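Feature request, filed as a ticket because there's no other form

It would be nice if the structure record came with a short human-readable summary line next to the tokens. Right now we just get the raw output. Example of a typical job, pasted below so the devs can see what we mean:
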Amino acid sequence: MFRPLFVAALALCACSAAHADPVETLRRLHDPKGGLIVIAHRGCHEAAPRHGFGTAPENSPAALMQCAKLGADVMETDVRRTRDGYLVIMHDDSVDRTTDGTGKVADLSLARIKALHLRQDEGGASTPLTDQRVPTLDEILALAKDRIVLNLDVKDAVYGEVVDAVHRAGAQDRVIVKTFAGIASVPLASIAPYDRVPFAVIPITTDRQAGDVPQIIADQMRGPVKPIAIELPVLPVTTLPAVMTQARALGVPVWINTLFKGFVTGMGGDPEARHDPESVWGRLADQGVRLLQTDAVEDLLRYRADRTVRAK
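Raw output as currently delivered:
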């Protein structure tokens, strides 16, 4: 029923030579000398003027294809479940912001959601509509094959269903699923369903100074199956050195978001990085951070290329 829409999405472009091979991306992620990994937040939805690209709806097939053409390594995207049990790609719990519809995802059928049009970029009531539709998880997994690693941010309590879908697609070697762990959590990557796909763990702490994060990292690395990366929560810049020391000692890559104001308070985020990339992305990289999630994908890719040239 929905196959024609998916075929149209596949026809948006041929995969550019710039695209990052998923197998190579995960190899680089495991390699301490593998360089910066560029993670596109909800896909490459912002304009990329140096490449001649306009905006695309967040979490859309077009945003994924734009990531492939730019050469981003990972596309972060969000998974929710419809009323009739289908897994779809949507950040919010409702369709209001990003489509021409209204209502909770959990209250709508797949047919109803598929009838909606996605709004350009990050959406909003005044944002133009596009011909893009909400993809299912199965569709986005198929579209990402040979193009980009997907980071799946599971918004509903459907981890088992998501992991099953990843295995049905044969995509377990080209996804990273994220989950949360606190100071009392067991090593999550060793238990079902987390032991069936690569997982990134986000430490959660009630301490505003994030003092528990180094211990949470140590605990999560104790199991026979270990997380592929640690995605840091918002924490003060003064806490970062201790966190990085612990991560280096345990050999786990660290992932930081520079979205909005940035997740390392006192350092700045994407707005500052656009104007002075060395002050944000450079400072993080100098401390050993290798996975950076951003909305400013084109700018971060350009900074990475410049940094690589300077290092030679």
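Something like this underneath would help us a lot:
Confidence is low (pLDDT under 50) at residues 1-17.
The radius of gyration is 19 Å.
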